[in-house]
Design a protein that fits this description.
The strands form 19 sheets. A five-stranded mixed beta barrel has the order 3-4-5-9-8. It has four helices and 58 strands. The protein has 802 residues and is mostly beta strands.
């Protein structure tokens, strides 16, 4: 069931190079967008386009959940049991879809294709949103997985088998064709009757058994009815009957095979043969996954033959079929994969970036360890199996389930992330590195390499932000070598497979990030190429309003001879307060006109050599000259409603154009708003609270514009203070005070002034609407006390002595 993959994306984001873009509209609060932020979208494919139909590596676009997503060139994305390019998804589509479909290329997987697809298709996309400017804002995919409604899984007992059509029926009545029709999608017929009429994009893996028992033993649907003719590739002898229950055994061990290693005794006519697959039987409990499809042509549904069925790419039978200890063939399978991508932690932004590895595999030989590998493919297509760890499938009493080898660890170095993984039984390798054994490995069970299982991986955990509300971290796709470097010569998928390479699959383009990382490449002779090196030139100092020229001529290609002339991409830091327009941006020496004010401009350069882009190089241009004015809008004031208020501002250096503007509070009419001193009449005082009026002053001179803000607080109408209790208790020298304000909302602050004692702020009781203080130690007894309010009220009362 390893193919039933969903993307695990604990997404956290971190700004790249500190680049941000600000967007503001009239009447809206300004917002700030990170230049690079992650996304993970799961939904139905609404539309899909192809950029260049005759280019097998072509990218395109798709719309998912209303979001337009760019699919880069060189994308190799994952179907449940196969992988292919974006162009092949269109090319291998069944009629009436395909590259030559009416209206242009159609995949048959998008909701707006014509005709509308029979069923909807679910796509999982992970990548980064890259914002270069207000007009260059794209969601760019990095990883893509497509299935049909969470893989259309189902479970149940086989109640009937149609040997003529190679179908299993999973329902509720034994020996009757009811329930779900399940037909294997196997164009080559590896596990039963070939079905080339089915969608070749959703096939079973015919090199690694996705049709198997739980232990990994390959299963099959007999091509003939075993009651009349036995299928030599799917023999009934491989499903022995329990002598006690007289039903097919659910758990048994195959004897040694005469063609195994070492050779075992000759098999009898009814002895199970581990070199062949085992047939499904009525009564087996299976888990299946595939795509919902229908019979071609007209079809009248009946209980015995519904028009619709599942074209299965994965079937797992709840059977414990084991093989003889330390004897080939032994079979293994992968049930689940999960890889934590640690990322490169940034010291400025706390983030969880744990490398983690979780693999669950099964083996038909539980006496031998199972080794686990990452399968690395370099830019020239050379494959290396990188050893991760090993696990013991022995079962009880050492572990839980016999035949299961499980690893769960956060200790180790599991990077770089790989697109594929492999598990291998030591029954095959005898402790040697698996890639040294595979070239001479024998095949069994209708052409399968036993003892190993090679599977793609689409389960990744990405860095997670540890600060809620902090800037999220982009997906670290630069750590995926197969996205950065590509995977070398590509020979096509399924019916599009070719003995001759279509060319080298290189780096994703456009790259799902602000700058494409340096990548390895490969020439036609299989020699690794290197990315060029960018040089943005030395820092410069220029005067305002003069021409500046950037210099990237020192950039160079590191390959000998150079591959192609370099291409140049210059970007100014979007966080610069002064933005300039670059002329001749695609050359080594673009130019611009400096701003009229003193500032520092930051530029980044990336160069390409036809297959990869360099890392970004940085340079600065400092514009020197008189600085813009420093503005002072004056200190905050507290005034009474209805009075004339004067705003007095200044600028250093003096002079320039002044402009006052109100930015908050009840609107007032400004007089002299374009002078250094403006006036207005304060609005009527509130009866319950202060009113805050805010004003900004902007001053512009030849060097630029400066600004400052100030606040005017309008005092509320004076309240009336009453004192209901002022008692001094002789025994303990304690003073109790209770007072109230005519403003009952608690906004006023009441303070008691006590002779020979510090002032005391009274506490407000919202239930009683009063203020009080109890038990203040005062000695000697005061004759009077005075209570004042922050709203202007005051009251004096005699103190009662008890």
């Amino acid at each position: 069931m390893h193919r039933l993959k969903r993307l695990v994306a604990s997404l956290a984001l971190l700004p790249i190079l500190g680049l941000f873009l600000s967007h503001a509209a009239h009447g809206q609060i300004p917002t700030t967008l990170q230049s690079v932020s992650p996304f993970a979208i799961v939904g139905f494919m609404q539309s899909a386009t192809l950029d260049t139909p005759n280019d097998i590596f072509s990218g395109g676009t798709m719309t998912v959940n209303g979001t337009l997503i760019t699919v880069p060139r060189n994308t190799l994305f994952q179907f449940p049991a196969t992988g292919m390019t974006w162009q092949e998804m269109f090319k291998l589509a069944p009629a009436p879809y395909g590259l030559n479909a009416a209206g242009g290329p159609q995949s048959g997987l998008a909701l707006n294709d014509t005709p509308t697809p029979f069923a909807t298709y679910e796509v999982t996309v992970a990548g980064n949103r890259v914002v270069r400017s207000a007009t260059d804002d794209k969601y760019i995919a990095g990883l893509i997985f497509i299935s049909q409604q969470s893989l259309n899984t189902g479970q149940g007992f086989i109640n009937a088998i149609d040997y003529t059509n190679g179908e299993l029926w999973v329902g509720s009545t034994l020996s009757a064709k009811t329930g779900a029709r399940v037909r294997l999608n196997t164009p080559k017929g590896r596990y039963g009757i070939p079905h080339p009429e089915l969608d070749v994009r959703f096939t079973a893996d015919e090199d690694n058994p996705t049709v198997s028992a739980r232990t990994g033993y390959p299963m099959c649907v007999p091509r003939t009815d075993p009651a009349t003719t036995d299928d030599a590739l799917c023999p009934k002898r491989n499903r022995p009957v329990d002598p006690v229950t007289h039903v097919f055994s659910a758990e048994f061990t195959m004897p040694q095979s005469p063609s195994g290693v070492p050779a075992g005794p000759p098999l009898g006519p009814t002895d199970p043969d581990a070199t062949q697959q085992a047939p499904f039987e009525i009564g087996d409990y299976i888990t299946y996954a595939g795509t919902l499809t229908k019979d071609s042509g007209a079809c009248t549904p009946t209980p015995a033959k519904p028009c619709q069925y599942i074209a299965a790419h994965t079937i797992s039978a709840n059977l414990g079929i084991f093989t003889a200890p330390n004897t080939m063939p032994a079979y293994v399978g992968i049930e689940s994969l999960l890889l934590g991508v640690g990322g490169n932690p940034d010291p400025l932004f706390p983030q969880e970036a744990v490398e983690k590895l979780v693999i669950t595999a099964f083996s038909t030989d539980p006496t031998q360890l199972v080794d686990m590998y990452a399968v690395d493919v370099d830019a020239c297509g050379n494959t290396t199996d990188r050893f991760y760890t090993t696990a013991d499938p022995f079962g009880p009493p050492i572990a839980g389930l016999k035949g299961r080898a499980r690893v769960r660890t956060v200790i180790g170095n599991f990077l770089p992330a790989s697109r594929e993984m492999r598990v291998a039984s030591r029954t095959l390798t005898q402790g040697l590195q698996v890639d040294t054994v595979l070239p001479t490995a024998q095949t069994y069970a209708n052409g399968l390499i036993a003892g190993q299982y090679h599977a793609p991986n689409f389960n990744f955990i990405f860095p997670e932000n540890l600060v809620i509300g902090g800037p999220p971290v982009p997906l670290p796709l630069a750590e995926f070598a197969f996205l950065v470097d590509g995977s070398g010569p590509y020979f096509g998928s399924g019916p599009n497979a070719s003995a001759t390479s279509y060319g080298n699959m290189g780096q994703l383009n456009p790259w799902p990030g602000l700058f494409a990382p340096a990548a390895q490449g490969c020439n036609q002779n299989g020699v690794l190429l290197s990315a060029p090196i960018a040089d943005a030139g030395p820092a410069q100092t220029i005067a305002p309003k003069t021409q500046g020229v950037l210099n990237g001529t020192a950039s160079h290609d590191t390959n000998t001879p150079p591959i192609t002339p370099l291409s140049y991409t210059w970007v100014q830091d979007a966080a610069d307060p002064q933005q300039v327009a670059l002329n001749n941006n695609g050359t080594a020496t673009p130019d611009f006109i400096a701003p009229a004010v003193a500032t520092t401009l930051h530029f980044y350069l990336s160069v390409g050599n036809g297959f990869a882009f360099s890392a970004a190089a940085a340079t600065t241009v400092t514009v020197v000259g008189a600085a813009p004015p420093v503005v002072n809008a004056g200190a905050a004031q507290t005034v009474t409603g209805g009075t004339l208020v004067t705003l007095s501002g200044s600028a250093t250096p003096a002079g320039g154009t002044f402009q006052w503007a109100q930015t908050g509070g009840a609107p007032v009419a400004l007089t002299g708003a374009n002078t250094a001193t403006a006036t207005f009449t304060a609005p009527a005082a509130s009866a319950t609270a202060f009113q805050a009026l805010t004003f900004s002053l902007s001053v512009t001179n030849a060097q630029g514009t400066g600004s400052s803000v100030t606040t005017i607080n309008v005092k509320p109408i004076p309240d009336t203070v009453t004192i209901t209790t002022a008692t001094w208790r002789r025994q303990r020298s304690r003073l109790d005070i209770t007072a109230a304000s005519s403003v009952t909302n608690g906004n006023p602050v009441l303070t008691a002034h006590i002779p020979n004692h510090a002032d005391v702020v009274l506490a407000f009781d919202p239930a009683a609407g009063t203020y009080s203080v109890v038990g203040v130690t005062v000695n000697p007894a005061p004759g009077t006390i005075t209570v004042t309010s922050s709203f202007g009220g005051t009251k004096t009362a005699n103190v009662t002595i008890r």
